[in-house]
Amino acid sequence: MKRNAWILPAMVVVEGIADEAIVNRLLAHIGLTDGWYRLWNTGGKTKILSKLQAYNLAARRQPWFVLLDLDSAACAPTWLSETLPVRSEGMCLRLAVRQVESWLLADKRGVSEYLGVPSDVIPERPDDCAHAKREMLALAARGKHRRCKEMIIKRQGAILEGPLYTFHIQQFATDHWDIDLASTRSESLSRALAALRRWVTLWHLETGV
């Protein structure tokens, strides 16, 4: 697309509240300030998927970044090619493997300090975790800090999400997360960063910023 032809601000779409903090950090990390994009929390993956074709159509003229969890799907590249086989120039669709918590767990040092758990109990390759959110909850259950008790509820032997889980995930992502370190242990995060840089360069430079 020609210089200055993109409709701005860019649109950024996420599943939930915790994702907002993670995406804001990622975009700031690659040099994009919040004045250049509008963040939209849809409240769930199903809602995003129901609108994905419309987002892709809009991305012919306006930059769109959509972040989803892979969840139980077998393969990220296969899912992407089947779900949106033809992507508009302005569409950046990325998957966190398997949940966005895996990107946080990839900062072993940060998670160790934040939760007060030994670093050797944190997965070395969190993209391989079947359920990264459950892994985060299990680590919080072992943690020494007061915040850990706020993150979980123990009920009939199960460890469930506590009332302040999302708050502490947001706080960690905003104030403690080492993205560069995390990207060395999460291939899906590393790929997402590379894709975001290409996406931003496409329209951020073309508009003369």
UniProtKB/TrEMBL annotation:
<protein>
    <recommendedName>
        <fullName>DUF4276 family protein</fullName>
    </recommendedName>
</protein>
